Amino acid sequence: MEARRLAILYSHLCPFRSASVPSLSSIVSPSSCAPQSKETFPHDCVFCQIIRGDSPAFKLYEDDMCLCILDTRPLSPGHSLIIPKSHFPSLDTTPPSVVAAMCSKVPFISNAIIKVTGAGLED
């Protein structure tokens, strides 16, 4: 199973190397969860849609607290997102225990990405 995930991750990353990077203005957009939004509903939140399975995403990791997915518009090879399984409008409102759970996955996920991309292996 790990080999399959790494192979899929690698296939996701290779096309990026030959593609041009779009401008940030075409990539960055405000979230419906952002404070400037008039209404914040979990059903409108793209991350909630992914958690529910209403929106497609390639999962790298999942447990009871969080989910790690490949970014659909990566800014660099291996660009992934770790998101909580519960809706929070901002990181400031996310409970410390949830933030800790998400952060504790970073070494595991980054090691897998480094293994696939070969990042940091050039001496």
UniProtKB/TrEMBL annotation:
Coiled coil: none annotated. One of its GO terms (biological process) is sulfur compound metabolic process. Residues 46-123 form the HIT domain. Pfam families: HIT. GO terms for molecular function: adenylylsulfatase activity. PANTHER family: ADENYLYLSULFATASE HINT3. This is HIT domain-containing protein.
